[in-house]
């Protein structure tokens, strides 16, 4: 439990422990672990997309569930493919990191553990802006994992992750253009409420 709290606090020593000590290449098959994490990552990303879509389609039931599922699947796969390609290009350009691509992608998948907080929206009702807060936490966690794995400066790691997340977000908006405007307004309203209460 202490390790999980320290991961939330973005402590580099804990990230180093989880990424290097807990996942030992001699005892763990990295290829199988990577595929499992990618599956869970895509599953949680699909759930995120369905949560965002829920606000647009609550009033209209004109689309079939098969059509919605196909649209969500295409959107999630294309956005994540764009994320991987832009991350690889940005990492090569800013960090000169090419040789350990599989290990770095494994670290990025592991450091995206904040996406699990979306499952809390199954039980409790949260404003939709929480989805974007989770996205920001995933971005910062990915940056910390990249810093630990490459031992580069934090500014470069944030730049690489920010580029990849912005490309992923932009590609996602191609498939869901109206959701961003609605949810961004909700996020701004929620943040202004938070700042008023402080």
Q: Care to describe what's here?
A:
The longest helix is centred in the middle third of the chain and has 31 residues. This protein is mostly helical. The chain contains 9 helices and no strands.
Give, in order, the helices and strands. Answer: HHHHHHHHH
Level of helix content?
over 70%
> What's the end-to-end separation, in Å?
29 Å
What's the number of extended β-strand segments? 0
Sheet with the most strands?
none
Average pLDDT level:
81
Broad structural category: mainly alpha
Radius of gyration: 18 Å
**Low-pLDDT residue intervals, each spanning 5 or more residues:** none
Separate helix tally: 9
Spatial shape = globular
Percent of residues in beta strands: under 5%
């Amino acid at each position: 439990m202490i390790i999980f709290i320290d991961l939330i606090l973005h402590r580099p020593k804990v990230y180093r422990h989880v990424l290097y000590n807990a996942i030992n290449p001699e005892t763990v098959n990295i290829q199988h672990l990577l595929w499992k994490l990618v599956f869970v990552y895509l599953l949680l990303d699909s759930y995120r997309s369905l949560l965002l879509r829920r606000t647009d389609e609550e009033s209209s039931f004109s689309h079939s569930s098969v059509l919605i599922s196909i649209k969500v699947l295409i959107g999630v796969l294309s956005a994540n493919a764009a994320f991987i390609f832009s991350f690889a290009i940005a990492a090569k350009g800013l960090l000169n990191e090419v040789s350990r691509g599989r290990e770095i992608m494994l670290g990025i998948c592991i450091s995206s553990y904040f996406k699990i907080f979306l499952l809390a929206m199954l039980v409790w009702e949260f404003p939709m802006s929480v989805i974007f807060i989770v996205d920001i936490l995933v971005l910062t966690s990915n940056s910390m994992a990249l810093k630990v794995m490459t031992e580069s400066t934090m500014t470069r790691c944030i730049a690489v992750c920010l580029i990849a997340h912005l490309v992923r977000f932009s590609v996602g908006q191609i498939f869901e253009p109206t959701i961003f405007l609605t949810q961004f307004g909700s996020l701004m309203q929620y943040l202004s409420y938070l700042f008023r209460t402080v």
